[in-house]
Design brief:
Number of strands: 12
Largest sheet: 7 strands, mixed
Number of helices: 15
Strand content: 15-25%
Order of helices and strands: HHHEEEHEHEHHEHEEHEHEEHEHHHH
Strand order of the largest sheet: 9-8-7-6-10-11-12
CATH topology of the largest domain: Rossmann fold
Helix content: 40-55%
CATH superfamily of the largest domain: Leucine Dehydrogenase, chain A, domain 1
Radius of gyration: 22 Å
CATH class of the largest domain: Alpha Beta
Shape: globular
Number of domains: 2
Structural class: alpha/beta
Distance between the termini: 32 Å
CATH architecture of the largest domain: 3-Layer(aba) Sandwich
Length: about 425
């Protein structure tokens, strides 16, 4: 019997090993649970469990000494092509792998659908530690990676944005490399660019601002004012830092913060001006005068009204979920809460604003940037912020209404809304051929 005979009648399906990882298993388990509850069509359900496109590249990366050449691995995954161009960040981190970016692309699909944006979800990255790279090395890495994925990105195809380990300068290099290959300037190939080359006002703080908008709406539902709350934020990067500053400006008391150097705690509230001055001088939070040092675990378990995980995934687990002392959990990071922890939080009556809603401000203002670039008509920062808050409030109300109507938690309600919109788009488009 030859190979053709042995394979006759078999469906050539992925083995599951291609993108199998804890993050991807979490994303699929969330989808499966909600799809079962919704009674989602089996064909669409199965289609949404895997990405439509996944690209893996390896390429040479030359160090500054011009003698060391390393092989680096990069990824770009497009989960869904039915809603329009795909959209999602690029991260540079040693933990980047195909499973991680596949999970993140899936969550981005639900996020875009929930917010009513004309995008499918995508994600990508390079497995490298950007903190060990010089500026010249970072630029060479970025330009070479762009050339490797240039055929799958573009303003009508797939639009990267900043994520963990990348920033507006990395986006500028990607735009320039892409434009050089196309022979003309193409600012719409990325979002999160510098203002000078087509970036949007308000983009840098957008994710943090969206997080705070959700806090305000949740506090209103709980019958408390944000000014009366104590907030702990794990992660003082772009998202966590912006959320802390905006919340403090609105009168909230920031009692705990953390970064890669460790955590700090001050029950009377941290002075954000002092925090910013200290981090500008030292490069980290540790040792801030007037604060108490705490571990990451101790930070998550501090007494507070609102806990904001804004660092990395899998921070709230079944090991620590019972020790949390917050009333409200706002997921500024992607996938910070495991399925087991979710069930514990629901049983304990702790409200969780899920990541696909809480951190949707970034992709929403990325949409604004893309739209402004297409129109060549740019908005003021006030216009951007007001439109962002309006969309965040609308999405929050839709999730809250769905949760009450179906008797489910906010994560399930948010995913039900997103998945329903995606399923309807697929049903309307049909199957080709």
């Amino acid at each position: 019997m030859d190979a053709d005979d042995r394979n006759a009648g078999k469906t050539l399906e992925p083995t599951g090993l291609e993108w199998d990882s804890p993050m991807h298993r979490l994303a699929v388990a969330q989808l499966d649970g909600v799809a079962l509850r919704m009674g989602l069509d089996q064909n669409i359900w199965e289609r949404l469990r895997t990405p439509q496109r996944a690209m893996v590249v390896s390429f040479p990366f030359r160090r500054d000494n011009y003698e060391t050449v390393e092989t680096v691995y990069g990824y770009r995954v497009q989960h869904l092509l039915s809603m329009g161009p795909t959209k999602g960040g690029l991260r540079y981190d040693l933990d980047v792998d195909l499973g991680e970016v596949t999970a993140l692309a899936m969550w981005m699909t639900w996020k875009c659908a929930l917010m009513g944006l004309p995008f499918g979800g995508a994600k990508g990255g390079v497995r490298v530690n950007p903190r060990e790279l010089s500026r010249q090395e970072l630029q060479r890495l970025t330009r070479r990676f762009t050339s490797e994925i240039i055929d799958v990105i573009g303003p009508e195809r797939d639009i990267p944005a900043p994520d963990l380990g990348t920033d507006e300068q990395v986006m500028a290099w990607i735009m320039d490399t892409y434009s050089q290959q196309r022979g003309h300037s193409v600012p719409g190939v990325v979002t999160g660019k510098p203002i000078e080359i087509g970036g949007s006002q308000g983009r840098k703080e957008a994710t943090g601002r969206g997080v705070v908008a959700c806090m305000v709406e949740a506090c209103r539902e709980m019958g408390v004012a944000l000014e009366d709350t104590r907030i702990v934020i794990q992660g003082f990067g772009n998202v966590g830092g912006a959320a802390a500053r905006i919340a403090a400006h609105l009168g909230a008391r920031i009692v705990g913060l953390s970064d890669i150097s460790g955590g700090i705690h001050c029950e009377s509230g941290l002075d954000m001006h002092a925090v910013d001055a200290w981090t500008a001088e030292t490069g980290h939070l540790a040792g801030l005068p007037g604060s108490e040092a705490v571990s990451n675990q101790e930070l998550l378990e501090l007494p507070c009204d609102i806990l904001v995980p804004a660092a990395i995934q899998n921070q709230i687990t079944e090991q620590n979920a019972n020790a949390l002392q917050c009333r409200l959990l706002v997921e500024a990071a992607n996938g910070p809460t495991t399925l087991e922890a979710d069930r514990i939080l629901v049983d304990r009556g702790i409200t969780c604003i899920p990541d696909i809603l809480a951190n949707a401000g970034g992709v929403t203002v990325s949409y604004f940037e893309w739209l402004q670039g297409v129109q060549q008509f740019f908005w003021s920062e006030e216009e951007v912020n007001n439109r962002l808050i309006e969309l965040m409030q609308r999405a929050f109300r839709e999730v809250s209404t769905m949760a009450r109507a179906k008797g489910v938690d906010a994560r399930t309600a948010a995913m039900m809304l997103g998945i329903h919109r995606v399923a309807e788009a697929k049903r309307r488009r049909g199957v080709f051929p």
